[in-house]
Amino acid sequence: MSDPYSKLAEQALGDQPPSADQALWILDGQDVDLLPLLHAAFKPRQQHFGRSVSIHVLNNVQNGLCPEDCGYCAQSKVSSAAIRQYKMKSDEEIFAAAETAAQGGAARYCLALSGRGPSVQRAQRLADLIKRLKAEYGMEICLSAGIMGDEQAKILGEAGLDRLNHNLNTSESHYEKITTTHTWQDRVDTLAAARRNGIETCSGLIIGMGESSEDVLEVGFKLRELETPSIPVNFLIPIEGNPVRDDGSLTPERCLRALCLMRFINPRAEIRMAGGREGNLRGLQSLGLYPANSLFVGGYLTTRGDPFADTYAMIEDAGFEVAGQGDHARARPGFQLAGSDDLLRPDVAAVAE
Ligand code: SF4
Question: What's the gap in Å between 161 CA and the centre of ligand 1?
Answer without folding.
Answer: 21
